[in-house]
Each structure stands twice: as structure tokens, then as C-alpha cells.
From TrEMBL:
It is found in: Membrane. It is a multi-pass membrane protein. It comes from the Bacteria. GO terms for molecular function: phosphate transmembrane transporter activity. This is Phosphate transporter. One of its GO terms (cellular component) is membrane. PANTHER family: PHOSPHATE TRANSPORTER. The chain crosses the membrane at residues 21-43, 49-67, 88-108, 128-147, 159-178, 184-203, 223-241, 270-289, 309-327, 355-374, 394-413, 419-435, 521-542.
Length: 547
């Protein structure tokens, strides 16, 4: 029997190691392919080896973004069972790559968030190239470590820390814009708080308007179209603002081909324009869904039945979030790579750099491949290992993700999509704990009253027993009463003990796993300094090799 068990364990270990080797092999194949292509296609450029190595590191960074950051877009949908893991990976990979290639932008800021002053390099491209390589590699290594530890962290903060550390190592502390860094530190608090509050608010509104109603079916038919329309409004607005900047002029040109329509062509959509487009689509979806639900006959009067109505909106939400993420965050992978490419090709340093198609392809396909190979670990963490999610809770988190980014972008607040999504997960979990506590307050009070009553009875039994025990001339009936009192006292003590245990059990209900919260918050706090220290060390290493 023991031999069979050992044999089974060996087979499982071999199977797992075989899968791990396959993942590593595919990842290395992609990175080496990028390195080889870059080296061969840039043969006429001096320092083309630097560019090839930078592309190799950029591919590694892109895969780590896919493995860590994309989980926030699809994790809640998978955790709520609105999508399978395979379906989520396919949808996210396609839309992440599509967002990066279609709407990723033709020009990217070479220094993310303007955190260091490139003038400090004195126009010398060599230390600048070394700094960007160090920043890219440090951010990628930190993301890899965080993914292995199942901690969803901000890729933006990782690259910010990398750039800051390499900049300090290259030109001293004065190179850093500390006011910008203060805003980034503020985002550690702003992002999860906003995400958590908005997610909790939507979950509470859905519970009050539908779940807590006696007739859930009628309430769902009335309010689900409203909530889905609001989601559509928020997501379309978010997509127009964040995902369509690159192709906006072409969209306007196409619209202007329609008779009687003549719109002014602008570089990017305004906030009001995005709101109007989102509102129009939201109204259309409201009437379509209202009509469909009014004729729906298969709904049961249960929370589970109401949950199913949010499945399709969640799938669309995951797809749209992935598209916008690919369009907006691909710069985290390719920004420094584009900067290195620009410095190598043009022999100088620029605050902005054009993005060649091959560089965009490295970012797009690297994110998709990283998600497919290593994404499931973080998807499970976000979807099920922090708090239990259903479709309604996942819907609330998706709403928080879109609305928080819209609000923050208009107010100029620095936020992290990772922190918003995880904050949303925390928010719905803590709301569930609060609702549970308020629902059981009556029970706790009843238990406390019971304990007081039973204590009074217990004390009376003990007093009676004491008086009988010290009586010298006991009769037979009194001896029997003493035995009976011992039994009654034991019974009362057990009853009081049981009531106290019940109160403790009710108070200790935790829908959010505290260990996961501590680990994730700790990872958030140390992301920037960890990436910065690692980047500084890598810069000195690269400089030492090159000089």
C-alpha cells in the first residue's frame, strides 16, 4: 500500500515538473526569439547588442505583467464561476493583445510618470541605456517574485521603483521628482480605499434593492437592467478615455462619412464626449435588457437565480477591462524598451519616443503569453483566496474598477488598477462581515441576556447547595436534593459555556482572510523600495561590466 502511494506521488511530481519545464521552455523560446529577431534586424546599428538584450528583458517584463497584473481583470469573474479558467485566459489574452496593438499608442513617455529628470544624464546615452535596462530587469524580477508568492502588486509601481533606483544610482537623489513620488505613495492609500468603498456601495445597493427583497424575481426585473446599464455607461466611458486614444482621429473620420454628420477631429476624446457615448450605449442596453427580462419565465425566487443574471455582463466586463489594460499598461513593459531603442537608433535621449511595431508586439504578445503560462496562480488568488465571490460581488468589483479610474483620472489622483481591484475584493468581503455582524446583533444580545439569567439561577443553586452541605442533621430528601443540585449546576455551567462560545464564534466570522490581506498590503508597501534597491544594484553591475 505504501509503495503504491509513493509511486503515485512520484508520478504527480514528475507530471508537475514536466509542466513547469514546458512553461519555462515556452517562455525562454519567446524571449530568445525576441532577442534573435532584434539582433538580426538591427545589424546596421552600433550597440545593437544592447538593444537585443533590452528586448530580451522587455519580453521577460511583458510576460511578468501578464502573469501578475492581468489577474485583476479576470480573477473576480473566475472566482464567481462566471467564467472558467480556460475561458478567462483566452478572453484576457486576446483582448490584452488587441488593446496593446490597436490602441496602445504610437508614442510613449520614456520615463514613466516623469519621476526622474533626464537632463541629469547630460545628453549621454550610455548611462541612460544602462539605467533603463536596470529598471526594466529590476521591475520584471520583482514581479516574478511577487507572482511566485501569490501577491498581486502594481506593475506601474514596480517600473516606477526601477526607474527611480537606477536614476539615483546614475545621477544621485536630486534626479528624482519627489513631489511625483509623494503622489505615487498617496496612491497606495487612495486606490484600495476608493475601489473598496465603491465596490461595497454597489454590493450594498444590489442587496438592498434585490437580494433582501421578498420577491427577488420582480426586484431583479426592475433593477438588474439599471445596474447593467450603469456598468455599460461606466465601462464604455472608461474604454473611450483609456483605450481609444490612439485610434480616436480615425474613428471621427469614419463617423464623418455618415451624411449630415461633421465632427471636429481631435487627438483624443474629451471626458464629456466619453460620458455621452457611454450614456447612449447604456440607455440602449437598458431597454434591451428590460424587454428581455420582462418576458423571462425561468427565474426562481432565490439569490442563486439572481446571480445568473450578472454572468454575461461580467464576461463583457472582463473583456473590456483587459482591452483597456492592454492599451494603457503596455507602456510599463515597452516604455523603457522604446526609450532604449530610441537612444540606440538616434544616439540621444528624448522625453518621448516613437514605438516601432516590433516593440509593441513584444509587449502585446509577451503579456498574453505570460498570462497563459503563469496567470492562473494569481487569478485564483484574486478570485477565491482573499474572499469568496459570487457574480453579484464580482460585478461590484468590476464596477469599482471602471468608476474609480474614471473619477481619479478626472481629479488627477494617482491610482493603481491592481490596488483598485484588490481594494474592491477587500471591500465586498468586509461589507459581508459587517452585514453578518449587524444581522446577528440580536442573537448576541439574546445570548448575553440568557447568560445573565442562567448565572442568577446558577448562583441560587450554589447558595442552596452551600446551605445544605453545611447542615449537620440532614434528612434523606435533603441528600437527594444535594445530588440533584450538583446535576443542575453542571447543566447550567454547560449552558453558560455554550452561550459564550456562540458569541465568540459569531464575533470571529471572517469573510476576508486576514493573512492574505497582510501579505498583499506588505507587498504593496515594499514594491517601490524593493524595485528601486534592486535596480540600483543592477545599474552598478551593468556599469561595472561595460566600463
Amino acid at each position: 500500500m505504501e509503495i503504491e502511494t509513493i509511486s503515485k506521488l512520484e508520478k504527480e511530481a514528475l507530471k508537475k515538473s514536466g509542466t513547469d519545464f514546458t512553461r519555462i521552455g515556452l517562455a525562454l523560446f519567446f524571449m530568445i526569439g525576441v532577442l534573435t529577431y532584434t539582433f538580426l534586424s538591427s545589424g546596421g546599428i552600433s550597440d545593437n547588442m544592447f538593444l537585443a538584450v533590452a528586448a530580451f528583458i522587455g519580453a521577460y517584463m511583458a510576460m511578468n505583467i501578464g502573469a501578475n497584473d492581468v489577474a485583476n481583470n479576470v480573477g473576480p469573474a473566475v472566482g464567481s464561476r462566471a467564467m472558467t479558467m480556460t475561458m478567462a485566459i483566452i478572453i484576457a489574452a486576446v483582448f490584452e493583445a488587441g488593446g496593446a496593438l490597436i490602441a496602445g499608442g504610437e508614442v510613449v513617455k520614456t520615463i514613466k510618470k516623469g519621476i526622474i529628470d533626464i537632463a541629469a544624464f547630460g545628453g549621454n546615452p550610455d548611462p541612460f541605456i544602462w539605467a533603463m535596462m536596470a529598471a526594466l530587469l529590476a521591475a520584471a524580477l520583482w514581479l516574478n517574485f511577487a507572482t511566485a508568492m501569490k501577491a498581486p502588486v502594481s506593475t506601474t509601481h514596480s517600473i516606477v521603483g526601477g526607474v527611480m533606483g537606477a536614476g539615483i544610482a546614475a545621477a544621485g537623489f536630486s534626479i528624482v521628482s519627489w513631489s511625483t513620488m509623494a503622489k505615487i505613495v498617496a496612491s497606495w492609500i487612495i486606490s484600495p480605499l476608493l475601489g473598496g468603498l465603491i465596490a461595497a456601495a454597489f454590493l450594498f445597493a444590489i442587496k438592498k434593492s434585490i437580494v433582501f427583497k421578498e420577491n427577488k424575481v420582480e426586484a431583479a426585473k426592475e433593477y438588474v437592467p439599471i445596474f447593467v446599464a450603469l456598468m455599460s455607461w461606466a465601462f464604455i466611458t472608461y474604454l473611450v478615455i483609456k483605450g481609444l486614444k490612439k485610434i480616436w482621429p480615425q474613428i471621427i473620420e469614419i463617423v464623418n462619412t455618415i451624411p449630415l454628420i461633421s465632427l471636429e477631429i481631435t487627438k483624443k476624446p474629451s471626458f464629456v464626449t466619453a460620458l455621452i457615448i457611454g450614456a447612449v450605449i447604456g440607455v440602449v442596453i437598458y431597454f434591451i435588457l428590460k424587454r428581455k427580462l420582462s418576458s423571462h419565465k425561468g427565474l426562481e425566487n432565490s439569490k442563486e437565480s439572481v446571480n445568473t443574471l450578472f454572468t454575461i455582463p461580467l464576461i463583457f466586463a472582463a473583456a473590456l477591462l483587459s482591452f483597456a489594460h492592454g492599451a494603457n499598461d503596455v507602456a510599463n513593459a515597452i516604455g523603457p524598451l522604446a526609450a532604449i531603442n530610441d537612444a540606440v537608433v538616434n544616439g540621444g535621449i528624448s522625453s518621448k519616443a516613437s514605438i516601432p511595431l516590433w516593440v509593441m508586439g513584444v509587449g502585446a504578445f509577451g503579456i498574453a503569453l505570460g498570462l497563459a503560462l503563469y496567470g492562473p496562480k494569481l487569478i485564483r488568488t484574486v478570485g477565491s483566496e482573499i474572499t469568496e465571490l459570487d457574480q453579484i460581488r464580482a460585478f461590484s468589483i468590476a464596477m469599482a474598477a471602471s468608476i474609480t479610474v474614471i473619477i481619479a483620472s478626472q481629479l488627477g489622483l494617482p491610482v493603481s488598477s491592481t490596488h483598485i481591484a484588490i481594494g474592491g475584493v477587500f471591500g465586498v468581503g468586509f461589507l459581508r462581515e459587517w452585514l453578518q455582524l449587524t444581522e446577528t446583533t440580536t442573537t448576541i444580545e439574546e445570548d448575553r441576556e440568557l447568560i445573565e439569567d442562567e448565572k442568577n439561577i446558577l448562583n441560587s443553586y450554589k447558595d442552596e447547595l452551600k446551605s445544605l452541605k453545611y447542615k449537620t442533621d440532614k434528612e434523606e430528601a435533603e441528600y437527594k436534593r444535594i445530588v440533584e443540585l450538583y446535576t443542575l449546576i453542571e447543566k447550567e455551567e454547560k449552558l453558560i459555556k455554550s452561550a459564550k462560545k456562540h458569541i465568540k464564534r459569531v464575533k470571529k466570522v471572517e469573510y476576508v482572510k486576514r493573512d492574505a490581506v497582510k501579505k498583499i498590503i506588505a507587498a504593496w508597501i515594499i514594491t517601490v523600495p524593493a524595485a528601486a534597491i534592486l535596480s540600483g544594484l543592477l545599474f552598478f553591475t551593468i556599469r561595472g561590466i561595460m566600463l
